[in-house]
Amino acid sequence: MRKNPYIGQMDRRISLFDKNPLRSDSGAEKRSEVLVTSAWAYMQEVSGSEDTDGKIKHLVNRTYTIRFNAIVKEKSNSLVLMDDSMRYEVIHVIEIGRREHLEIRVKAYE
User: Fold this and answer.
1) Mean pLDDT of 56-69
2) Whose CB among 40, 42, 76, 92 lies 3.0–4.6 Å from 65's, allowing a Cys bridge?
């Protein structure tokens, strides 16, 4: 069973953006990111690794725990998380407790 973080552990300010593609009048597709919410979060490092496929890439896996937000739970995989100017792709959102917290699993290639 997952444990809820203490309020003092939620010390990172993150922003979640929706990355829905928009179509212009000419039919071209362009990316638009709309701010969904900003929240205080508890960050945990899950793993990291290096991949050498032509050039070295560093893979970062993290989890962020925030207070429950229905919009974040609904949009889950179509979100992008920003933390200290770093962009992370949201892989999965897990509900902790009964509408208490959300655990957001993210990954990024550096």
Assistant:
1) 84
2) 42
- pLDDT of 20 > 80? The answer is no
Q: Which residue from 45, 65, 41 is spatially nearest to 108, judged by alpha carbons?
A: 45
- In this structure, the number of other CB atoms found within 10 A of the CB of residue 57 comes to 12
Alpha-carbon distances of 87 from 27, 83, 98, rounded to whole Å:
28, 7, 29
Q: Counting beta carbons within 10 angstroms of the beta carbon of residue 14, is it exposed (0 to 12), middle (13 to 18) or buried (19 or more)?
A: buried
Whose tokens are 């933390």? That residue is 83
Best CA proximity match to 100, nearest among 47, 14, 42 = 42
Token pair belonging to 65: 């725990």
